[in-house]
Amino acid sequence: MLDLRRMRFLYEFQQRGTLSAVARAFSYSPSFISQQIAMLEREAGTALLRRTGRRAQLTPQGELLANRAADILDRIERASAELSAHADTVTGTCRIAVFQSVSHTVLPRAIADLAQHHPQLRVELVEREPEQGLFETAAREFDLVIAEQYPGVLRPRRAGLDHVTLGADAPYLVTPRSGPLHVTGLAAAAEHPWIAEPRGTASRIWLTQLCRASGFEPDVRYETNDLVTHLRMIEAGQAVSILPQLILSSVHADAARQRLQMTSGREIFSAARETTADTPMITVVREALARAFAVAMAGTRAEPAGAEGQSAAGTAGASRST
User: Fold this and answer.
1) Which of 17, 34, 121, 246 has the most CB atoms lying inside 10 A of its own CB?
2) pLDDT above 90 as % of the chain
C-alpha cells in the first residue's frame, strides 16, 4: 500500500523542485526526504525520481503519482470543509501570509475582531512577499494569503487558488513638508532624489511608469522594502516617493501627502485554496479583514494635489485589467 505521507513529500517535490526545498518546508533533512521517497518507490514498484548529478526530476510515473497525491489532498480538504460547515462554532488554526503594509494596518485590527467574536479560532501570521505567499498557500503552507498587485503589473493566477478583492489602495505623492524637496505635483519632483522599493519589484515598476508618464525618469538613490524607512527619509528632507494609503494611515510622519488622482490604486486581495475557500474559518477571517480594511482606508486625509500631479497620474493609471 502507498503511504500518504510519503506521497505528500513527492507532491511537495513537484511543487518546490528540489529535495532541499521540501526538507526546509517540513523541517527535515534532505537525506530524510530522499529516504522517504526511496521507500515510496519500493512501495510503488517503480522509479519516481530520475537523478542527474546532484539534481533530481520526476519520472513520468512520479508525475502521475504526484498528481494523484494532489487529488487525495484536495479530497481530504474538502471532507474537512464539509465537516466544519456543520460545527456550531468556528475553530481551528488559520495561517495567514501577509505583506508588510497590511501587517502594519489591517491585520492587528482584524485579529482583535476575530479574538472577540471567534475566541476558539487561532490565527497565525507570517510576513511574506506576495509572490512567495501565493506559492506557499497553493502548496498548503498557509490557509490564506493577502497580496497586492498594481495596474498593468498583474500577478499570474495560480491554479487552485481563488481571488477575492479586499479593496483599492490609493497612491500618494509624499514629500517633505517644507524645504527644497517640497513640491506640488508629480512632475515638479523630476529633479529630486527618490526612495523606492528594490528594482524589479511590482511597486518599483509601477512608480517608474508613473514618473515616465509625467515626463521624467526618477532618480532613485535609496532602495528598501521597508516603507517606514521611506517615510523617515522623506520626513528628514532627503527624498520623495509615491506611497500607498495603507502605510500612511498607520505610521505617523511629518510629511506632505498629495493624492494622485487615478482611476484606481494597487489592488489588495486575498487568495485561498478553492477546496477550503467556503469554510467558516476562511469566511469569518475574510469578513474581519474587510471590516479592518475599511476602517484603515477611512483614516487617511489627503492634501489636495496640484493639477499637474493629477493629470500626470491620471494618464499613467488610466487602464487596468483584472
Assistant:
1) 246
2) 49
